[in-house]
Structures are given as C-alpha cells and as structure tokens.
Design brief:
The structure is a homohexamer. Chain A is an alpha+beta fold. Chain A is about 40% helix and about 15% strand.
C-alpha cells in the first residue's frame, strides 16, 4: 500500500504504512483501562493516533519519540481533527529483527522538513550575499554564514506557528532575503547592502533559541534571553573578530536585527528608526504571516468556505470559492 | 537670485524669490499690533513666514491662498522650525500690473507635487494592468483607470503624513503596484491577478475622500464615510456595469479593498482573511511608512544624528552617521 | 406526555417528546465504539444529546439537520450543561410512514424564534416609519422595508450572542427603533427623522451577512465584507433609485449606518461624528447587551447567585437574591 | 448697548457691556511689559480677554475672580479662538461707588448656568421619584434628595467637559432620570424602581467631588477618593439611617452607583453585572456624550463643515450641511 | 502507611490514607455509566480523584464537601495533572461508626492553610502596629485589628491565584507590612506611619469579599462592590467612631486603600497620587506576584526546565538549572 | 547676596548670583527683535531666563552651555513656571579677566548632581557587593564595578524623568541595591546573591546609553540599541573574560538584566520568568517612580493642594494638606 501523506489523509480510510513517532503518552480511559496516545508524523504533517487496550495487549511496544513504526488502522474525525484508531503497530527495528519485509519503508518520507532542497536554498542565499554585498558587509555576512552553516541548514523557523521544521529557518531567511532584493528595486533610496545584510541575518539568533528541528523547543537561553539579542551578539562578535572598519554601518546593521520585530510589545528592545530597519521588519512579517496562512489553509478540512479559527492570526481564513472557467484546471 | 528650494533652506539666510501662498492668517501681537502669519510653499515643501506690522504697512496686500508672491526676507529658526521674517512681499499679479520684471518666476517651481513625471507614472501603472491582468479583472481595472484618469493624475496620497501633494495618489499606487509585481515572484502560490488588481485599486476611494491636491482637505464624504468604503463602492459599481462574470473573484477583490488597512482599529471594517489581502495590506504599509520617513528625514534640520519626534511614527529617526569610504560619492 | 420546553428542562428527568435536529455528528468513544452527538432544539432553546452505541444499533437513523424527531431519554448534567442520554429516537417522517400516532407533535413548538409575533413587530415598526417620518426619508425607509420584507421577517439578529433566531433582526430593530422614539423626547435638539431612520436601517445589512435563521451562519460576503458596508450600499442604492433629493441628509443617514458600531475597533470604518449617529450607536449597544444578559441569565442553572462567565461580556452576572415582600408576585 | 451673549459673539466686533470675571492672571509680554489675561463670562459662555500695558495704566484694577466688570473692547480671533482686546475695564463696585450709571447691568445675565429653570428641573426630578418609586426605595431616594437639595441645585455636572456650570448636576440627573423612565417602557423585564433610583442617585457624589459651580474644581476628596465611592457611601449611610429593610435590593442599588462608569478603566471599581446597572451606565454615557457634542458644536466657529478636534471625544464633529427645503425654517 | 502530602505525590504510586473532600460531582461516562469526580485535599494541596462505576457499586457513599474520607487507590497522570483512580473510599464517620481503626487519621494534616503559625503572624503584625505607629493612626489600626481579629486570622488572601487558603490574608498582610517597614529605611522622606498603616489595612475588605477560607468564594457583596471599597468604608467608619482628629491624614490613608491596585484598569477607582500610596501599591504587587510564582513553581511537575503556562502571569516560569557546587546544600 | 537655590526661588524676587548655563537659544520676538532664551541651573535645579533686546545690547555675551555666569534680574511666573527676566549677565571668565570680584562664586553650588556624597554612595554599594556576594558572582560584580568606576560615578540615572544628573545612576543603583538587601529578609526563599547582583548591575548599560551627565543626552548606540542590551553584553563579556564557572547562574543573572523593565512594551526583550527577576524589576520601578514623584513635588509651586500634571505619571500629585499637631515640626 503506497504511503499516504498525512496532509492528504481523509477521514474513514484504511491506513497501512510507516510513520515517525513524534510523541508518546500513556493514558487511562474513564473505565480505568490503559491506552496509548501517540502523535505520528511524516514529512507532510502530524496527526493523533490511539492504541486502545485490546490492541495494546497484542502490540505492547514500547514506543518512543523518534521510532519509525509500521501502523495499520483507520482514520476518523474527533472534535474536528483526524486521528488514527490503530489496529496494529510495531517498530521498524523490531520488525526487521524478526525478519519482516518492510515494503515501502522510506525514512526520507517520514521527516517533517522544508519542502525545498536545503542545499539549493543555501546556495541561493549564499550567492545573494556574495553577489550583492561588498566588503566589509560581505565579509561579515559570509563569515557568519560559513561559521553557522550546519545550524542554519537544520534549524526550524519558529517553534510552532510558521516554518516549524527542519530547514525552516533557512527557508524563511531565503524567502525574506530574496524579497528584500526585489523590494530594493522599488526603493532605490535605501542602503541596499544594509537591507540585504539585515534580511539575511535578522533571525540568526534562532539557532540558539530553538533546539530539535524535528520537534522545535525553546532552549533555556531562548526563553530567558530570546533570539533577538542572541543574534545581535553573534553579529557584534563576528564584527569584532573581523575588525569591522565602519562603526556606524555596523550600528545600523545591529539596529536592524534588534528592531526587526517592529515594536516593543513584539519583543524588540528598540523600534525601527531607519528606513532599512522598517523594511526588513515588514518583509519578515509578510513571510511569517503568509506562511502561517499557508499552513492553516493546508491543514483545514475540505468542507466549508472558511478554515477554523487561527489562534495567532485571531481570525478564520477564506479558502476561496468557485473559480472562473479559465482557471478550472488549477486552484489558488 | 536663483530659487532656493524650501527643502534646502538653511537658517539665517537671505531669501529673495517667489512662492505660492498656501495659507494666510491675520493675527495680533501681544502689544495689539496686527501681523500676517503665512505659509509659503514651493514644489519641495512649505514653511512659515511672518510679516510684522512695520512691513505690513508698506506691503498691505491683500494676500490669499493660491497667490504667487515675490518675497524678500531672512530665515530664522523658531522653536526648531524655519520661518521667514519678511521684509518685502507682493503678489506677482500686482507686480505684473505695475510692469515689474519677474526674473526667475516659474510657476512649475512653486507647486508641491510628486517629483516624478505624472504621465510616466500613469503609463507604467497602466501597462502593468494591461500586461499582467487578463479578463475579466483586466477589464475591471482598466475600466476604472480610464474612467477616473484625471482624478487619479491629480489626487494627493493623503491629507498630511505621506504623499500630501499633486500626483501623490498616483505615485503611491504606482509604487505599491510595482512592489506587488516584484513580491509575486517570491510568493508564486498567491493569485497574482488578485494581488495586482488589489494593489492598483486599493486607495481609489481617495479621489472622493480628499479635495484640493495642492492643500489636501477631507471632503464631508471623506470624513463621514471614508475612502475605504467609497473605493469599494466604485469597484462594485463598475463590476455591475461590466457584468463581471465571476462573483467569487470579485468578492475577493472587494475584500482586498475593504481590508487593506489591515485591522479594524485602523479603519478597515474587516481584517484580511486571504493571503492576497494580507500582502496588499503590508505593501501599502511599507510604501506609506517609508514615505513618511523620507519626508521626515528630508525636512529635518542638518544638526544632530536624529530627527525631531514624528507624531505618527511616535519616534525620532536616525539620520545616519559617517559613511564607509566606498560610498563617499553618494546616497542617503 | 406534554412538551417540556428546552429552556425549562431540569437534570435527571425523563424526556418523551419531539425536537428539531439542529446538528448531527458521528463520533467514536475512546473504546472505538460509534455514537451520535446531536443538538436538539425547540422554540425555547437547544441542548446536546447522546445516542450511545447500544441504542444506535436499535435506532440507526439516519438523522439530518432539519429533521423532526421523536425522542425518549433522560437528562443529565455534563460539565455544567444539560444533555439528553437517548434511549429511543426516530424521525417523524419514518414514524408516520410506519403509521405511528404522533401525539403532541406540533412543528410550531420546535422552531427557535423570537417570542414575539413577527407580524405584529413588523406592523409596529412599519407604522413608526410611516407615522413619524416625512418625505424624502419616509420614502427611502419604507422603500427598503417593502423591498426586503421577507428577509427582515426571518433574519436572525446575530450569529450567536444576541437574537440568534428566526425574527431576531426584526425584534432587535423594532426594539431599537421604539427606544429611539422614546429617547427623542429627551433630546429634542436632534434631527428626529435621522435618528429614527438610522435606528430602523442600522442593521439592514444583516440580511446579507447571515444565512439560515434557524442556525445562523455568516455568508462569504458576511465574512469578507460585513453587514455594515452591505447595509450602507443597500441604502445608497435605494436612494439613487429614488433620486433622493437631499444629498447632505442622505450623507448623514449613511454616516449613521457606517458608524453604528461606535468605534473603529468594533468594525465601523468611521466613528460617530454627529449626535444622531452617537445616539443610534448607544441604543444599538443597549439592546444587544441587554439581550445578551437576558439570554445568559435565562440559560443559567438555578444554583448560586451568579451565572457562569460570559465570553463576550467577560464577566459573570448577578441573578438577584431575595426579593422585598411587596414584589413577591412577580418580576425579574 | 444691549448685552451680546458670549456664545454669539463674532470676531472683529465692538464690545461694550458687563461680564463676570472668572479668572485673572498677571503676565509679562516678551518685552517685559505687564498685561492682564482674564477670562470673562456670562451665562452663555466664557472667553479670553487681554488688557495690554497701555490700557492697564489707565485701568489698573485690581480685578479678582467673581467681580462684575464693565468692559469696552474689540473681539479678535487668536489661534482659532475669540478673545477681547480690552480698551476699558473697571469693576461694577468701583463704578457704583463713583456714582456711575450702570445701564444694562443684570447679574442674572452673567452667571454661567444651566439654561433651564433649576426649580422646575428639581420639581420634575422629585416628582419622578415620588410618583414612580414605592417604599423602601422611595424613602431612600427622597431622603437623599431632601438632605442634599441645596447642593444638588447648585453643583456642576463635571469639571470641564459636560455641564460644567451651576445646576449642571441637576440638569444631567434630570435628563438621565427622564430618559430612564422612557427606556423602561422598552425594557419591561428590568426592575424599574432600581433603574430609576440608580439614575437619580448615580452622580450624587459629585456634590462632594466638585466645588464652586461657577468655576468647577475638584476637592482633595474628589481627587483622592472620587465621586463614585463618595456617592456610594452617601447612599449606604442613608440606608443605614433609614434601616432599609431589603439588603439585596440595596446591594443592587449600590452596585449601580459603583459600576456606572461601565468599566474598570473608566474608574468604576466593579463593572455592571446586572441589566439595571448596564442600562444606567449607558444612559449616563448618552447624556454626557451628547452634551459634550452640543457644547462643542455651539462653541465652534461658523466657518467650515466640521468643528475643531475635541480632546475627549478624539474627533471632529460634523456641523451639518445644506438642509432640505421643508426644514429651511428651523432645525437642529 | 504514612500520609503522603498531595504536593509531593508522584504518578503511578499507591495511595492509602485520609483526605478532606473539597468538591463532589456525579457524572456519567460516555457509555452512560455513573462515576464520581471528586476533589480531595490535604494541607499541602488539592487533586482530582475518580471513582469508576465498579468501585462505586462497592463504595456508594454518599460523600459531601467537608467529609473526611479514607481512600485507597493509585495515582496517574491525566492531561498533565495527577489524579487518583480510587479502588476504595469511605467516610471517617461511617468507618468509625463501624468500629474501624483509623490509623494515621489527623485532621490537622488535611486542612489547606498558611504554612505559618497564624498566632505568631498575628503577634508580629500587631506588634508592628503597636511599636511603630503613634496616635491617632495607632488607635485606628489597632481598633480595626481588634475588632476583626477572628476574620483576619482565617480569611484567605485571594480566591484563587495567591494565598487562597486559611490564614492567607493574614500571611499576605504580615508580609507586606514587614516589607513596608524595611522599605521605609530606604525612603526616609515618606510618611512612615501612613505607609505602615496603609500596608496593614490595604486588603482589610477581603474579609467581606471572600467567604469560606477552605474553598474561597466571592460573596455577592464581593462581586458587586469589591474589597477595595468595602475596606475603605471600614476604615472610614472606624475613624468616625474614634473621632479621628486629623482629616487630612485620614484622607491620605483612605487614598492608599482605594488606590492600592495601582491603576483604574486593575480596579482602583483612583490611582496613587502620593508617594506613600505608590509604595504600598508596589509592595502589595510584589508579595502577590512572588506568591503566585511560588505556588506555580511548587505545583509544577519535576520534568523540564520550565513550568506550564500561568494564566494570570501569562508566561511560563524558569525552574532553575544546574547549581554551582557551593550551593549544593540548599535552596531555590 | 547669598545664593538662592533654584529649587527655592519664589516669583517676583530679585536675583543676584551665579548660575551654570545649561542651554542657549537665540530667538526673535514677534516684533523681530532678537533675545536670548537661556536655561540656567545650579545644583538644585534649572529654570528659564530671558535676556530681552535692551539688556542684550549691554550684555552681548556670547554665552555657551557650560559657562558660569553672574546674573542680575527678577523672577516672574510665565504659564505656571518660574523664569528670570535678566537685567545683567556676563560670564565669570570675562568678569575675572576684567578683575571683578566674584563674591559668593562657588562652582560646587552650580552643578546639578545627586545631593549625596558620591564617594560615600560608591563605598556603600561596593561594600554591599563585597560583603554579601560570594564567588563567582562577587568576582563578576566587583570586576564590572572596578572597570567602570569612573563612568558609574558620573553617569546620570535617566535622560529626563528621574535622577537626570551627575551621579544619578550611582544614586539610583545604590538605592535599589540597598532596598534589595532589605527585601531579601522578607523573601528568604529567593536566591539572595542573584537578586543583589541583579540590583547592582541592572542599569549598567546606561553608561553607554547616556552621555553628558550635566545635560543627559542619548548616544546613537543608546537610541539604536538601548541600555538594556548594552548592559547585558557588558556582563556577558566580563563573565567570558573571568571564565565564569556556572552557566546557569550566569543565565539567570543575564535574564534579570534583560527583563528588568518588566514587560515587552516597556522595552525588555523578555519578561521576568524568575522570582529574582520579578523582584529586581519592581525595586527598580519603585525607586524611579518615587524619585519622579519627589522631583515633581519639589518643583511644584507652593499654591494649591495638587501639583500640575506629570507627563510620565499621567496624573497630578497630592502635596498633602494640614498636618496633625504632633508633626508640626517636621516631615515630608
């Protein structure tokens, strides 16, 4: 049975395939019977699963976060969300040990990650910096990219609401930086290098704020200091190491990073006081808000014209209605 | 004496040139002596002028908004703003009537207007719609542009804080529409035609909200109804006249216009519930905020690293400090 | 067994009567057994019902929104709200087909609707307009009432929090208009006709914003445009059709409609700038807030001096305590 | 020369009449010359006056708040507000002492006060309580009215923004109480006596919060405790003295008084939790807001369609435009 | 089996001990079977318990709030909170009646209360007033303490979020008053007696706002009037009875009590306008906020570096990480 | 003539003494005559002065910020604030050059500075750290104090609203640290060393944010980065240099510094998530708010019971009224 992507599962269908275990919880029914509440994922999303007592007796596990598992079961809708009622489950490891054939098992299908090729994103981002920055900003930006290549390639973009997956930070940064480049053609009066450097570096501190791209969590430093000041310090330190020759240019770049949330109440200790900082703030906003909307639209059930309520956007979204004839092949 | 642009006047310099009278007020000093408080402008800006009693006796006027006047005087700084202490003033009309030679008088220099060629902006905007929209949106947008060509060419962008001059609406719309076009290359998943049509039409209601591009004022309808609903109605009416064939597409376009202030508290009766509406909202924000900053930076006195406080942005702006050597030729 | 009104049901009583099905959901218990979660209503309210697996086997349905059903069961309290545990259920249609006698079945009892006679409300409202408006406002208001009679007679007043039922819009409008008439005796300086016309028309757009008075839902246009601008457009169009002769009077009436939510953050694109608009805003507020409180007090369980927390009012309400002797016969 | 009411004075007219001095300040011009800045009033309003040095030498005063003065001068507009440039001024007292004839001097014309007959307002208010309340609320309300008759007859309604004059509190209370009576016919489910008693007593604490009805000022207790709790205590004390027999009824009345500002941020220590309290809150709001608008419209200069910005309402007001023919005689 | 404190219970352990019943609810499972949802407490905290149908048949109760019960069962974690799955339960009363031995039953262990000795707190608080206040403030404060001794000894500090237990008000007052005394050494310019008296009396109204220290609930007067004005009135009345000789000093003390929530939106009808009032406001804030944090940290499960989200503080708290070697013996 | 402190000057008195020039502005009267607007200060405060044209002719200066000047003149009240009308002014330098005797000239009297002995404050602060901190926090704190001794001794506490003078930062830090020490006796559960170290270091970044203690101004880095992150970086760097051995302890200290404004909207990039951070936030608040109140009360004119409106506190302050007999000698 071919792998059905989590994002495309419907209710009331048979499931017979592999997943990555992302969370495990042992619970008890109101009758006092134990059952397992799992969160199972693949590269397209995550959903709940239940292993009731009867099944659990036959499939006792144990199961842990990070296990690959083979699962049989049936989807159903519970309080508006899909879940799998499991009729069989075991780990790939144990199945292999018992010599079972694992038809269709492909770990690459099971990891939630940016849908883009991360190396390609990296190359485009790097080229943008190489091709459109000049010293000393070029040296500063490339120095930071080189030094943190591995972390940037894997870090998530946020804990929960946008790009919360492997490569999410890279995808977000790539998008904001490319947008910045486009925007500069509209606003030639701005210092283009500052905007571009700011767009590339604005969220660098996320590599210290968030851990575990597969299931992003804030680190203690992320909670207690935050990515804004952590990223600012990284830029400042690199500049010191490179003996960056233009204090005012550096100050303006630092200001872009510290002010990129746009307002004190959103966590920036200073608000944008230059046009370059203002633009980077808005481009960051656009990318994260559009991604949130994308994710919410994708995960919405097909019924109805509107999605459910989005807790951060504080609104429902319109899914679009009938299409003009010439667009009948495709869709929004 | 060559015309010195208002935007480039310094304090304590002699002025001997022409202006457009933008406001006239008769006042009395604390000693009970009458004097004139004028606002004089040219294409680059506006400043205060004072005609004290002694001068007023020799130059009794009268003076009215819209008069071209020849002025001699001296600039000074009063509470952080420049003003002219007038030693001679008379209208061009009376001077001409008396046969005076009006060396250097050029009305084109005196009107506050977009620094761009309005016909060029119009052509670019129109081409964007013609080249990148298809029916039925193309017909709707071009229909509205054709119908309101003259008003769009002259309307201001806002009453006070951004683009408050002849052609301001056109300049703003042109900028937002071009930016939208650039942004669409970054966000291919959006309905490009909706974004572009929304960007072009979002502020159309301003032609009914604001009167007198030379000195923008809100009309009663502008005050009591506002440009958002006025523009929405224009789109809706044109669509009805054209028998626009796709109700849902039209609904989404109408939504972009009604929601383009981004939040209820900023005057939109609905908040953006589609990605297209969200993007147009942000692009409008970027253009108006960057323009506000431009205008504030341009009108700031040269002393100090920071401008004065901006009442809408609620902050001071950084004017930038020393520049890296390779940029010494230009910019900002 | 006589019909027991939903609003008067207590816990732990037997139920044996008819309901209207307002919502149906198929769910699965934690043991994996299917059950039905229904919402059953009559003219006085709505409550939850559960058809567990054992019963479901005998009463398999199917059941759909809008069905009349005969139900036997028992009420119980679940998390502070009443629900019926169903022991028998079938549709009136199938029971009739099988020749069953339907004692006590009366559809009029089962529809949630204004407790008032809708024709009477309509007559009073209409007379108010006829008797106290003069041309041209009279023509405009009566024209709109005539044109939309059927929709106004059935539309709900809001989706959820006040008057969410058949005839709710009419009841609310009737109440606000009558209150306006009373208030005008206190504030004779206001333009009485404007206030009265504004009170009658302020929520007219709800007939386009909300669908299905039995279970109000926002239409796409309701979500994406909102009743405020939809109602404004209806007034403006009718005025155009009638060639309304007084532009300023019309502008003030339009302003009342657009500003009747009182502030930008509540969804009005402009805030009240006339006394007439201010008064209509407050009268609308009073009626919707008092109705919310009424509904919350009515649906509160009898125990305790205070209701539960109201999510829109963001407070608990006092139910009143002991009464003075002379009031023992009645009231509140 | 007949008395010209302050509220009807135009700019650039001769003034030759009597005023009441409401404020006196000795100032110095920028040349170091002393002058007097006065505020002069009559029953219709207050305006600024200036006595420049030259005049001051001839009319040295002294002048104090509360003096009746004869004034000659000329009005002018200064920064959008009228002021009188005084050419002669002396007190009525000194003029009488010198045997001058005081043609047209009428103290009744000079006191800013409610335009209504205060005794009539009192009678209407008192009758409302007598006729529509029954014991024990009747006794409580009449007891408080009797006890504080003199203070209620003279107290202002607020320090500055609405009813800031002799009899203002009475006028406001009378208006709110009459409106409450009208509203009760629309909302028969409410406890009518509670609403009426609450409407009559809601602002009683103002007699302790504000001093000097001619020029209202907050007392220390007004600043440090506020009229809300001061009024509450008065009701509570009177009830204790009368041995009010129904604790719950009293509690609800007290709640109306404490919650009548409608929300914590407006100074009520509790928010309305009964329908009666909610209604009294809104009726108070309506009366104070409409009065603010009245006062702002009345004091606006005749030019233009809109008033200046109102600092409490945070908006400009529309003055109304052309009128329909049938209203040409009268209106608003 | 020794008593295990609720605050120290872990999941998956056997429980065999006594509790105080704090809440009882009869519910039905989704299969329609009845079960009991209890809240059981001891002096260290409260937790949920479930008596499923099978057990209920053997242990039918009845059970009521306030019963002492013997319980056997096992803890488990349900949605992140501990609960007991009960296998046996009966009341101490019935067990005693049947002659059972109640090993380890100690009522003192079962009541939630301040961890301090209440008499000691009282003595310290009283001594502070006696030793550091002089007449007339001393008389006023001691008079109020004497009169309300019993209520202060038992009242809770708040309904839910800080000190919600027997003696909580006393503990909070003692802490704020002692802190005030310390702070006065840093700010010698303040009126020390006012600060101290204000600190002692600021929350006195809580004895009327809250009932039942074991399970604090707001009284009707607490809901409709609030502790701030209730406490103010108590002070004012006592002062009247004592013929307090210094009206201004009293006014300032009253102001401290009314303004001690620091801002209108937090329920004070006036904001602090003296330094003494400002200090008392902050000291109250510090004590309640630190206590909230204490309670949240104590009730947090041991896993992870951060607590769950606190609904009033609107944040997670850091539990602290590794400790430096020299602190290994103790604390935090 | 003895030096009259600025803080004790009354209106309408003769002035004949020395000042420090803190600001100079050349202006023009409405008649076009030049005059000087000066701000003159001594150690107790600052006030405006005017040198009108006639005087300016005799006393042409020039005058610059930082000059010591001898002044004769007279105080007057202008718009509620004192100013000096100067009849003679010259610099001490020029007077000395001309051999004039400078009776009573004492620079120490003229510098606005903390009223405390700065060396004593420093010693107390240093001893607190030495005596109550242990390694490694002791080393970190003393290291930073040693390194920045000179800057801490001179830096102001804020630009304008509290401690805006030489030694202001030291005075504020000393006060907060001593208060912290006192508070720790009330809250023994907190990590005392963290609180103390946090209190001492919380505002360290001000030495980089503000320049010129005599007339504090924000530096570009102060504007674009802010003292919060600047101070955090200093601590972090010192810790790195000292190879601070306990990462978690350091993290908590860093958190105190970053969160000490208490909320995002007040400029902290993170909010307090530990009790230690919460306490330091409140102690900082108390000290700055009480100082603001002190300064406002001190600069208030003696008339009336209340001060003028304070723009940051957004309220008027009570100055206190009559005093009880036993306090007649002293206080407040």
């Amino acid at each position: 049975m071919a792998h059905q992507l989590v994002s495309q599962l419907k209710k009331d269908v048979q499931v017979h395939q592999f997943f990555l275990v992302r969370q495990v919880e042992e619970r008890t029914t109101k009758d006092g019977k134990p059952f397992l509440a799992l969160r199972l994922g693949d590269k397209s999303g995550v959903l709940e699963a239940r292993v009731w007592n009867e099944v659990l007796k036959k499939c006792p596990g144990p199961f842990a976060t990070g296990d690959y598992v083979a699962v049989q079961g049936r989807t159903e809708s519970y309080q508006g969300e899909l879940q799998i009622i499991v009729s069989f489950i075991d780990t790939v490891e144990r199945l292999q040990a018992r010599g079972r054939k694992l038809e269709g098992f492909d770990p690459a299908l099971l990891h939630l990650a940016t849908p883009h090729d991360r190396e390609e994103l990296w190359q485009e981002l790097y080229s943008l910096a190489q091709g459109h920055l000049t010293p000393p900003l070029q040296g500063l930006v490339l120095g930071l990219l080189d030094k943190h290549r591995e972390e940037i390639l894997s870090a998530p973009g946020a804990q929960l609401y946008h790009h919360p997956y492997l490569g999410g930070l890279l995808e977000h940064t790539w998008s904001v930086a490319r947008h910045a480049f486009q925007s500069l053609s509209i606003y030639p009066g701005l210092n283009a290098e500052l905007v571009l450097a700011g767009a590339i570096l604005h969220d660098l501190g996320k590599i210290k704020e968030l851990a575990q791209p597969q299931a992003p969590e804030r680190t203690p430093a992320g909670h207690l200091l935050g990515h804004i000041v952590l990223g600012w310090e990284m830029v400042r330190e690199e500049a010191r190491n490179q003996e960056f020759p233009h204090p005012d240019l550096l100050l303006q770049l630092e200001h872009i990073i510290l002010s990129h949330h746009g307002a004190l109440e959103f966590g920036s200790p200073v608000e944008p006081k230059t046009r370059e900082a203002m633009l980077v703030y808005y481009l960051d906003e656009i990318d994260s808000k559009l991604k949130m909307m994308d994710q919410h639209l994708e995960s919405a059930p097909p019924e109805g014209d509107f999605t459910g309520y989005h807790r951060v956007l504080k609104r429902v979204l319109y899914k679009g209605g009938e299409r003009p004839p010439e667009e009948s092949g495709g869709q929004d």
